[in-house]
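Sequence design from tokenized structure. All designs in this work follow the same two-part layout: the structure record, then the generated sequence. An example of the structure record is given first.
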């Protein structure tokens, strides 16, 4: 069904974050993936390079993003375009939880700093 309620998602956990998947091939999409990422206070993410463009929309909190070595403090309403092949790290150094809406193309993978590959289940 093309309509998802706020409760109609699958939750995955990785690197101290929760990923609430709403749109993915496993949910009927052919081209797009969309999920809500939640970061607890004090979360430090893992740097990784992405195979596809991603768009982050900050819904709540004050996360920071390091994009190609440049760290930027974000707030609700800010939008970040992560280019294909860019290295990105998402952190939440603040004292309250942060939430972001993320969209990308089907098939996104990530390469970690140690050369490993992550195939997120929320993009399949």
């Amino acid at each position: 069904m093309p309509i998802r309620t706020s409760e109609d998602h699958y939750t995955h956990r990785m690197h101290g974050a929760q990923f609430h998947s709403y749109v993915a091939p496993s949910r009927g999409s052919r081209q797009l993936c969309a999920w809500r990422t939640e970061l607890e206070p004090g979360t430090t993410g893992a740097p990784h390079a992405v195979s596809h463009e991603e768009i982050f929309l900050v819904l709540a909190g004050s996360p920071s993003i390091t994009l190609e070595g440049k760290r930027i403090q974000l707030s609700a309403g800010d939008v970040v375009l992560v280019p294909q092949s860019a290295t990105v790290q998402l952190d939440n150094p603040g004292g309250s939880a942060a939430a972001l809406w993320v969209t990308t193309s089907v098939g996104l993978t990530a390469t970690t700093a140690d050369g490993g590959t992550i195939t997120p289940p929320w993009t399949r």
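The chain has one domain: 10-123. We note this feature because it recurs in several other targets discussed in the main text.
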